[in-house]
Amino acid sequence: MIDARWDFWIDRGGTFTDIVGRRPDGELIAHKLLSENPEAYRDAAVQGIRELLGLKAGEPVPAGLIGAVKMGTTVATNALLERKGERTLLVTTRGFRDALAIGYQARTDIFAKKIIKPELLYSAVVEIDERVRADGQVEASPDETVVRRELQARFDAGYRALAIVFMHAYRYPEHEQLTARIARKIGFTQVSVSHEVSPLIKLVGRGDTTVVDAYLSPILRRYVEQVASELGADAQDGARLMFMQSSGGLTAADLFQGKDAILSGPAGGVVGAVETSRLAGFTRMIGFDMGGTSTDVSHFDGELERSFETEVAGVRMRAPMMSIHTVAAGGGSILHFENGRFRVGPDSAGANPGPKAYRRGGPLTVTDANVMLGKLSPGLFPAIFGPNRDQPLDADAVREGFEAMAEVIGDGRTPEQVADGFLAIAVENMANAVKKISVQRGYDVTHYVLTCFGGAGGQHACLTADALGISTVMIHPFSGILSAYGMGLADIRATRQKTVSAELSDALAALRPVRDELTSSALQEMTTQGVTEADTDIQHRAHLRYQGTDTTIAVPISDAAAMTEVFEALHRKQFGFIFENRDIIFESYEVEAIGGGAEASEPTHALDASVPEAAEETRFFSGGEWREAPVYRRADIRPGAKASGPCLIVEPHQTIVVEDGWAFEITALDHVVLKRVKVLARSKAIGTEADPVLLEVFNNLFMSIAEQMGVTLQNTASSVNIKERLDFSCAVFDAQGALVANAPHMPVHLGSMDRSVESIIAANAGRIRPGDVFALNAPYNGGTHLPDITVVTPVFDDAGTDILFYVASRGHHADVGGTAPGSMTPLATTVDEEGVLFDNVLLVDQGRFDEAAITRLLSDHPYPARNVAQNVGDLRAQIAANEKGVHEMRKMIAQFGLDVVQAYMGHVQDNAEESVRRVIETLGDSSFSYATDQGSTIEVKITVDREKREATVDFTGTSPQKPNNFNAPEPVTRAAVLYVFRVMVESSIPMNAGCLRPIRIIVPDGSMLKPQYPAAVVAGNVETSQHVTNALFGALGAIAASQGTMNNLTFGNAIYQYYETLCSGSPAGIFNDGSGFDGTDAVHVHMTNSRLTDPEILETRYPVLLEDFHIRENSGGKGEWSAGDGTKRTIRFLETMDCAILSSHRTIRPHGLAGGEDGALGSTTVRRLDGRLEDLGGCGQTVLEAGEAVCVVTPTGGGYGSPR
């Protein structure tokens, strides 16, 4: 019997709303309309349904006409992006009011003068006197009367949405439950509680997720209610309204929450891509959804992939979300030619003004490049442009734009070649995004299908597949509206999670009560949505990790032995190794109930093998030449049709470009399948002359290799320092050891690693063999300070005779010995007191890792390393990261040829050099004198030769080395100079050895910036580097002093060693055009960008209690432009520990510039058991007993310009 009702599957996107209507007879109808058209209708989804049902304006929707409406919506995402959510109050533990504002203290753009942090979602905070320790011990219980009074006052002030986030509530929720009860009684209409919203460890991620939930849920609820009332969903026999969640499952409208709505639309696209690929017989798929502003890519290998830690619109989310990687390359991405390079995006022309072809005076975009090349033809595209929406795409304006750009570029290329070059870069950006979710995680995608959807996908499908080595592309007839189609194919899903954090066998033994509780809760949610237990599939997953690491892998629950086997296999696949004899921790438990989805099926058609007829002939430009191309209209070609490219297939919602060497066929399911029929010439015949297009391509490829190395290192390291604080850097070097590309990791490493590589090359000339790997931390032989160990791997040619390049990774080891835990003693006077020296150590000898010798080196020392196993684990991770770099470099050589890769290693350096020369020619001579707390002075004089466009940076007059550890080896000063000039460029250029070519650096021997052995140096890298940076920006008159310190706090004993650096506010300054900017509160600046460990992780792993960490309001230096505010952090110890501070600006205030006021001084005090406060000074070391605390107040940056 046919159900006499309509079903609607809807994707309400940012620009368009797509609808698939299923008629009572089962026929599917596609419909598309603008999401925002307030003059014509109130809501696009409802309007689309009314149009498909043929209802007149104002006519109510008849009861019983609609069965189900399944919908994905960007309402929540847009409210988040535009910061238009509900006014929200945050209620948190006393001392943590700024925990979410500070976050993990790192900045996203390490070379930005003005640091921009995401705007906060909450507008007020209430701190409650409550505290539970990591082990559940209650330090303070909330006073109900006080809580009620505080919340009532905020309710009276108009707040209705509330987020409650208490320390360790994911495991001990009683205080949150009490506060939530009081809030609901008072009348708050939205109460989001962290242990319900995201019952997982990590205060910052869980807190952000809870705030997002409170901020967005009221907006969603209003939208849901509006849609429900207009469709009569609340009436008897009314439509059943369901929404797509970020995790890829549908849920009833009344259960739809803010935290689950962020990826509502894109998740439908992934489900649609997976299900349609399955129907077509493809089990492994890369989803490629290219829209107007961005491209979403996803990976499928048998099951939907989710991540439990994501960042969306600057908000850290701890909730299950589809694993979707978004890159800012869409049809509207703007094309730039600057600094001798072609660049695409990340900025977009949006829907208004849109691309130049849209007749609204917009800029040249990727869409325009396709118009220029004939891949989008005005005659084949709907005429919906111009004031009356009746004109075609404006090809003339596009041609004029590219002609003007070709003239500016001035190297003789035609407008078509310019457009083709931009397209090549857009494709490379998208291919690199796919590599991030696949190749980087150990998957070989060459045997996958590229399932292409979104309005702009078909134009780039063949080229993107070629860039990835994929030979099959699938495009569904609903590809232009596949997200909407996916809504109809999705299951109803209910998930439950809980943190377990116990050893695997112990956790399994105690799992039953938790299993029963979560399973029953998930099943109950399914039952309320009409899915019986018999029709529900329950999946139980454990998120496992190795002891001491942070990366979890989801494994189905069975017995301990089987789970260990699966976990190790997955770990080896993703990271290339497993840990022997290390405990496996059952970190969190997940139950997912699945059912009630539509059975995916599509009709099969008889195949008609007759040759398809072209509607017309056209031509398009591709691969450097014009190609004749027939145009097939999708409506005219039947299943069974086949033809070879080059050709175009025109559909109502998109154009498919079939490139030369590819062929299409229409399958029995009416899908378009593209296959490469000629072998792709992998080694492209590219000249070795610098080409502005390939310059950008190689730039991105070299950078991508360094980033992939970084991901490998982060995932495989043992220590918190590398894995969570991300205190490491990875880079690629040429055969001479000059820096070619680095991932944007730690600035202080990036300009100094090449000296380590050069030292290894010089010390081992003629003796390096394939399979050798070297390690070095020697400050007087290319190193910086002892905790930073650099691991260097040569890349040989196939014959194993010549070294072609080097790759290297530098990690800050948590402890390398020395007189204090953490190897950052403030009291050392010689380098030997700071720890173990690695001076050109052969770490791997022709492929054999000599663990015994490394263990001896770390142990046989007057002050040996305290955790040798951890050092060895981190060194192994660095070796693995380098191996990843070697592997990717080899792939690049195979693709482009050795001569081309080597030529472009030089070209990217030449390009960076030219960018720095352009900055230098705008500078004048200047100097600066910078006094330090230690009584030393850094003198710098910058002399500019404008004709040669060169600068000399002379540190003559700087104080001699002293018997303290603020002496900085010469590579540190080079790193500071490189960083400063890179920042002064103020645009996106690669940072490499070329940046330093136009700069001559003079550092006097024996000075504190070029000390002689055996001077101690540990503070040189972390403190003096910041001083040199401040002095240089002072000389250039660009930026006032930053806090001028990293506030290096170390503590530990024989069992624990921990190191952290603490942020302050960033300084004020001016851009090169003379406009000024304020500093930013609580963020790392200049030579460091290390993360802070999450407060809950810190307390779980170390016997300490974080009492307080907040922003000190109005503490930044004032001026016409004022500095950001600093921080204050108090840690109480629960065991006896050594504690040391290594810092600056405790006696001299960081300077303002151009009349701006100086910043504030910092301080470090110890609170003893008897209440006495002891000042530790800038550099101090002491022992703290259980119950005693250390308090660090950071100095603040200076203001710029006289205060108004």
UniProtKB/TrEMBL annotation:
Pfam families: Hydant_A_C, Hydant_A_N, Hydantoinase_A, Hydantoinase_B. GO terms for biological process: glutathione metabolic process. It comes from the Bacteria. Residues 691-1203 form the Hydantoinase B/oxoprolinase domain. Residues 8-187 form the Hydantoinase/oxoprolinase N-terminal domain. InterPro entries: ACX-like_C (IPR049517), Hydant_A_N (IPR008040), Hydantoinase_A (IPR002821), Hydantoinase_B (IPR003692), Oxoprolinase-like (IPR045079). GO terms for cellular component: cytosol. Belongs to the oxoprolinase family. PANTHER family: 5-OXOPROLINASE RELATED, HYPOTHETICAL 5-OXOPROLINASE (EUROFUNG)-RELATED. This is 5-oxoprolinase. It comes from Pseudorhizobium pelagicum.
